[in-house]
Design brief:
Strand order of the largest sheet: 1-2
Number of helices: 10
Number of strands: 2
Number of domains: 2
Radius of gyration: 20 Å
Oligomer: single chain
Length: about 200
């Protein structure tokens, strides 16, 4: 974990925006493997109906469906309830241990820890994450507007929930300034990013 807020992360980590260009990356995967061999999925679907989501994946790869256990249906790491960690060092070390345990099929143990107060020693317990400012939210939306429209077309899916209801005039006044601050590093990254 990195101790940045969202706005600082946008400025300092150009990959954050680059990795959000879903339509661009999906199109490349479909070109490389064929559209019939690439299944676009959405976290919204996983969150809404985990069993249907897993069934869709199983059907796509041709394996037998299986029933998710009740402990596998719990929401984990929901961003709405997350906070900064008390200690970024503890969080980093806890993540390494959790990854090691998951690799050895100790998922139930990890789920038990995540459902207990011990979780707050490693994840959270600090101050709440602040939401992005309207200016930053508008800037990100403007930068990704074409990506979202393309993704709607490619995936044949309505993504209205991803779009802002309206943008206030105060945001429009500062849009140009915010775009220069937030996206200048991102555009440099995009220009240098290798094709994958």
């Amino acid at each position: 974990m990195i101790p940045w807020d969202f706005e600082e992360a946008l400025i300092r980590d150009a990959e954050l925006i680059e990795s959000s260009r879903y339509a661009t990356h999906l199109r490349r995967w479909q070109q490389a493997f064929g559209p019939e061999r690439v299944l676009p999925t959405f976290y919204d679907d996983l969150r809404h109906d985990p069993q249907a989501y897993v069934d869709m994946l199983a059907d796509f790869i041709g394996m037998a469906r299986f029933r998710l256990e009740p402990w596998e249906l719990r929401t984990m790491h929901a961003s709405e309830s997350m906070t900064h960690p008390r200690s970024y060092l503890w969080t980093h070390r806890g993540t390494l241990v959790a990854d090691w345990l998951k690799a050895r099929r100790f998922g139930r143990f990890i789920a038990m820890i995540n459902g207990s107060p011990v979780r707050k020693l490693f994840l959270g317990g600090g101050k709440r994450f602040s939401p992005p400012s309207p200016i930053i939210a508008s800037t990100v939306w403007e930068f990704l507007r074409d990506e979202i429209s393309d993704l709607e077309h490619i995936a044949n899916r309505d993504l209205s929930a991803w779009k802002p209801c309206s943008v206030s005039t105060s945001v429009d006044v500062h849009y140009e300034e915010a775009t220069q601050v937030v996206l200048s590093d991102t555009e440099q990254f995009s220009a240098k990013a290798p094709d994958t």
